[in-house]
């Protein structure tokens, strides 16, 4: 009789394919022209559709992704349903995270639903996600500090999310709300992972609107910036507005190009984001000649400027502070010497909102592919490098890039290898000693004593002794407490009451069972104010097979600030994103004179021998080491030669970097001494940005696995300025200088740069805590292994980034008849270790028009 078991999988497969084929014949609901990305796998009581696989239908492996689903229940009355998303690959240990959310269905209609899932780092375009709908059942009492959640019962519907549009792991992502490119297209490059004459390219998610945007900041987390033009914000509603607000507070940059007519951004009644918009009054003018603004729009004089455009300018409201209304760009001076603000900014948490009054979305701009991004957008977004388009692109792409991954050391930073190495060494030493004692040495000793006939007794005794020693040694070196090795980035903007952190950690729980990890205090009030995120994490590259007893664990797909993970006395790698009130006493200005009115940092007089004056102090848990101070005194003047290969694209008139070394807690730093104009520790910022690219080994030279500690430190510091790093000189074919074709990339650190701050005067300090020995993380992490949640013991490195905004200084328009621009003498690069000299300005113009 034939064995029937092999037939069963074939029958099931045939049924699944038939169901999928039948589902493909049904008309998919219209989704603004997007193809349906949910494939029905079985008939059920609940039909699952997918309108967006990622916000705007683009995702990046390793990131959080928003899934816009439709849930249609065929039941006759509303009921609770648990919707669950899984990935067949699971996490690095082979365990399967279940991202789930419960909803109350509305029979007779497809109910829209946003779920948020972290994709594995090795997620590929050929892979898929599984979505199942379950009848909700009581989940039993929740442990202390945990949210009560419904459990998943009977399966009511199954679908597979297919055909994801996955961008390169090394791409930046940005969004455009509206239908116009506004000159941003050049940042997108081509199908290569590189810009033709720059580093990473930007994948733009276009044609977004209020309905497309997610209801949690996690959906916007992959975006470096969001440019908004045509749609009115009134359609956002409270949840989507809250998502954008939290994304900005966590370091996002919202740029609003005011529409030609009917702008509602400064209207409190019609803008749910009114509380984060610059406090300004908008003045609208028609019939404006843009010729005076040509240096912001077009690098060549051959294209005549339009003479009948709309221009909207800004005036700060009475009582508006510098943080609430800072001028970034202003027009040319009028007869009275006054300049109209055309780009204004408000600081919000660790992010910012920028309003643009120049109509860069006009029909004339779109037809002529203007404004030139080097002239305009570089100055708003904090970008650098030549944007090449046209026939030259193919030629420049033929240049081979030498890759440098600036965040490639993150997996090594959190690796817990000490105890494992001790165990391996103990086992090796005991094995050698056992082999010697039970073998030749033991036999020789017995033979010399005339007791060779007792060899087997001695052998058994040696085996027993060494077994006991090995067991006891393993017990002694076995970790006895819950602990985590971390790498954390913390950002603080002086004057703001919100910090944000990102933490990677390897969590060791020396028990078998499960543990619940929390990001944020489970009993804290900020748990409801911010939606923190915690998820399993794994580095790029080939993964392990995982454990044979793979288990499933649940993650809240809407508020994933806690997760209960399986534990096996081994390490689980996690990533946490947190925001809230400052957890540490960050740097702040102090006055050395008790009678002085304040301790503000001020720009020194031009004839002083230093750039800044004032004193700052910190009370962090330990000394800051490898401290880098960056002083930016403003943008370069608005010259057309700022663009192009000859322009060098140095954004600053004066920007300098200082290496301080160590800064102890409670010790005031005198900025007059730290920012001297002549000193061995000073270098032009542009020279330092070049050094960070030139220094160290490339990935091809295996530098990613053998970087020393100083190289790791420099590269973790450089992540703050990543979009401003020295661009590769791909036009140099003869390799006139070493490292001309180096290309910088990041895989894990997207969204961690502070580049937009270099578009306005500011002081930035970057330092490290725990670079030489472990130090606790500022991220409030808690854990429960069955009892009350307790603070998680952490040790590792924290990169502290502190920003102090200085008074606004918009760049000047050149005076008529001032003659051609002059290129300054090249600067001497600093020493590769970061302590060398080399003065000179950070700016400098290029050739004339």
Core attributes:
14 helices, 40 strands, disordered N terminus, 16% helix, disordered C terminus, 31% strand, 7-stranded mixed beta sheet, single chain, 9-stranded mixed beta sheet, 849 residues, alpha+beta
Task: Write a structural description.
With 849 residues, the chain is an alpha+beta fold. It has 14 helices and 40 strands. Strand 29 and strand 30 form a beta hairpin. Helix 7 (418-438) runs parallel beside helix 8 (440-448). The longest helix is centred in the middle third of the chain and has 23 residues, at 455-477. It starts with 6 loop residues before the first helix and ends in a 44-residue tail after the last strand.
Helix content: 10-25%
Strand content: 25-35%
Largest sheet: 9 strands, mixed
Give the averaged pLDDT, no decimals.
Answer: 84
| Strands in their spatial order, largest beta sheet | 24-27-22-21-40-37-32-33-35
Task: Tell me the structural class.
Answer: alpha+beta
Number of helices: 14
Quote the distance from N terminus to C terminus.
89 Å
Calculate Rg over CA atoms: 30 Å
Shape: globular
Would you count the extended β strands for me?
A: 40
Q: Which stretches of 5+ consecutive residues score pLDDT under 50?
A: 1-34, 817-849
């Amino acid at each position: 009789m034939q064995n029937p078991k092999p037939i069963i999988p074939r029958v099931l497969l045939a049924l699944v394919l038939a169901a999928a084929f039948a589902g493909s014949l049904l008309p998919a609901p219209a989704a603004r022209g997007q193809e349906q990305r949910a494939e029905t796998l079985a008939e059920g009581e609940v039909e699952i559709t997918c309108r967006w696989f990622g916000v705007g239908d683009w995702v990046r492996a390793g990131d959080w992704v928003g899934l816009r689903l439709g849930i249609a229940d065929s039941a006759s009355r509303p009921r609770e349903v648990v919707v669950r998303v899984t990935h067949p690959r699971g996490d690095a240990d082979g365990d399967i995270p279940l991202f789930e959310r419960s909803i109350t269905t509305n029979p007779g209609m497809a109910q829209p639903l946003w779920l948020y899932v972290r994709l594995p780092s090795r997620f590929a375009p050929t892979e898929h996600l599984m979505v199942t709908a379950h009848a909700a059942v009581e989940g039993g009492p929740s442990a202390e500090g945990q949210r009560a959640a419904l459990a998943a019962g009977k399966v009511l519907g199954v679908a597979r999310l297919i055909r994801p549009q996955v961008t390169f792991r090394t791409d930046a992502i940005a969004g455009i709300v509206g239908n116009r490119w506004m000159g941003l297209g050049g940042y997108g490059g081509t199908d290569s992972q590189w810009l033709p004459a720059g580093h990473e390219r930007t994948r733009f998610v276009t044609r977004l609107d209020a309905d497309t945007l997610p209801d949690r900041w996690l959906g916007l987390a992959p975006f470096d910036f969001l440019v908004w033009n045509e749609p009115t914000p009134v359609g956002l509603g409270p949840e989507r507005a809250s998502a954008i607000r939290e994304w900005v507070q966590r370091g996002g940059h919202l740029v609003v190009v005011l529409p030609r007519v009917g702008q509602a951004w400064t209207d409190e009644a019609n803008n749910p984001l009114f509380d984060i918009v610059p406090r300004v009054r908008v003045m609208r003018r028609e019939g404006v000649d843009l010729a005076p603004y040509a240096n912001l729009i077009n690098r060549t004089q051959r294209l005549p400027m339009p003479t009948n455009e709309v221009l909207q300018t800004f005036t700060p409201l009475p009582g508006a502070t510098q943080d609430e209304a800072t001028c970034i760009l202003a027009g040319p001076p009028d007869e009275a010497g006054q300049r109209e603000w055309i780009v204004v900014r408000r600081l919000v948490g660790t992010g910012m909102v920028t309003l643009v009054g120049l109509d860069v979305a006009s029909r004339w701009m779109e037809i002529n592919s203007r404004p030139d991004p080097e002239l305009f957008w570089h100055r708003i977004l904090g970008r650098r490098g030549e944007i090449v388009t046209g026939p030259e692109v193919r030629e420049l792409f033929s240049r081979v890039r030498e890759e440098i991954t600036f965040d490639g050391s993150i997996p090594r930073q959190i690796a817990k290898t000490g105890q494992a190495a001790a165990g391996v060494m103990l086992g090796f030493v005991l094995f050698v000693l056992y082999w010697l004692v039970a073998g030749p040495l033991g036999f020789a000793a017995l033979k010399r004593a005339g007791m060779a006939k007792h060899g087997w007794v001695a052998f058994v005794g040696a085996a027993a002794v060494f077994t006991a020693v090995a067991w006891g040694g393993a017990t002694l070196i076995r970790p006895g407490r819950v602990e985590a090795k971390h790498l954390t980035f913390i950002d603080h903007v002086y004057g703001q009451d919100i910090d944000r952190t990102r933490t990677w950690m390897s969590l060791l729980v020396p028990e078998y069972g499960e543990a619940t990890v929390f990001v944020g205090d489970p009993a804290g009030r900020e748990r409801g104010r911010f939606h923190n995120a915690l998820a399993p994490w794994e580095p790029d590259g080939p993964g392990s097979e995982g454990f044979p007893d793979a288990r499933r664990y649940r993650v809240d797909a809407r508020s994933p600030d806690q997760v209960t993970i399986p534990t096996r006395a081994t390490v689980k790698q996690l990533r946490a994103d947190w925001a809230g009130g400052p957890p540490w006493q960050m740097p702040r200005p102090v006055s050395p004179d008790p009678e002085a009115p304040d301790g503000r940092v001020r720009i020194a007089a031009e004839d002083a021998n230093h750039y800044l004056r004032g004193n700052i102090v910190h009370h962090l848990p330990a000394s800051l080491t490898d401290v880098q101070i960056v002083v930016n005194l403003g943008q370069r003047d608005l010259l057309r030669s700022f663009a192009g290969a000859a322009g060098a694209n140095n954004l600053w008139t004066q920007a300098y970097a200082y290496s301080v070394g160590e800064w102890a807690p409670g010790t005031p730093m005198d900025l007059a001494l730290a920012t001297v104009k002549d000193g061995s520790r000073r270098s032009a910022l542009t020279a330092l940005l070049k050094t960070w690219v030139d220094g160290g080994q490339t990935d091809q030279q295996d530098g990613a696995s053998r970087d020393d500690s100083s190289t790791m430190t420099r590269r973790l510091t450089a992540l703050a300025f990543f979009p401003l790093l020295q661009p590769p000189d791909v036009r140099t074919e003869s390799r006139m200088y070493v490292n001309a074709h180096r290309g910088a990339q990041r895989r894990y650190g997207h969204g961690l740069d502070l580049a937009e701050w270099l578009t306005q005067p500011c002081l930035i300090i970057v330092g490290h805590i725990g670079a030489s020995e472990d130090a606790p993380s500022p991220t409030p992490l808690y854990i429960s292994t069955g009892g009350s949640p307790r603070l998680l013991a952490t040790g590792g490195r924290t990169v502290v980034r502190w920003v102090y905004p200085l008074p606004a200084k918009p760049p000047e328009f050149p005076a008529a008849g001032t003659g051609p621009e002059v290129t300054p003498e090249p600067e001497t690069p600093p020493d590769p270790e970061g302590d060398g000299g080399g003065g000179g300005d950070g700016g400098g113009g290029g050739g004339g028009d």
